[in-house]
Specification:
- By secondary structure, the protein is α+β, with helices and mostly antiparallel strands.
- Helices cover 24% and strands 42% of the residues.
- The chain contains three helices and five strands, in the order H-H-E-E-E-E-E-H.
- A five-stranded antiparallel sheet has the order 1-2-3-4-5.
- The longest helix is centred in the C-terminal third of the chain and has 15 residues.
Length: 136
Amino acid sequence: MICDICRDEAFLAQKAQPATPDDLQTAADLLETLQHYKEKCVGMAANMIGVNRRIIAFEEGAGFTVMFNPEIIKRSKPYLAQEGCLSLAGTRTARRWDCIKVRWQNERFQQRLKTFTGRTAQIIQHEIDHCEGILI
């Protein structure tokens, strides 16, 4: 289901609760909503559709990736970026890392680990900030 975008900063500032297998429908809704907004948006976190769970979805290559309970476990090469967000007005400056190693769970809740760089790394960091309640 395509969901409305949450713009309530008090809700968005809450730290997300861990995702469980009961959240698979939320992930499907998040992905469908992201695909609907793909002309304007390259990533979303579940709180952007009004669900306080640690789930992100983002554009990766020609497709999309969904992560449950993502966490950055290593980072290198810091830089400053200007970012916009569907949930927040305007653009903001954010400190980002060009190379990150992320641990997460897939849709079967199997542990995954991968290093991301460049634009994809920046998108993931933005969405994990949402999970942490960080309004950049």
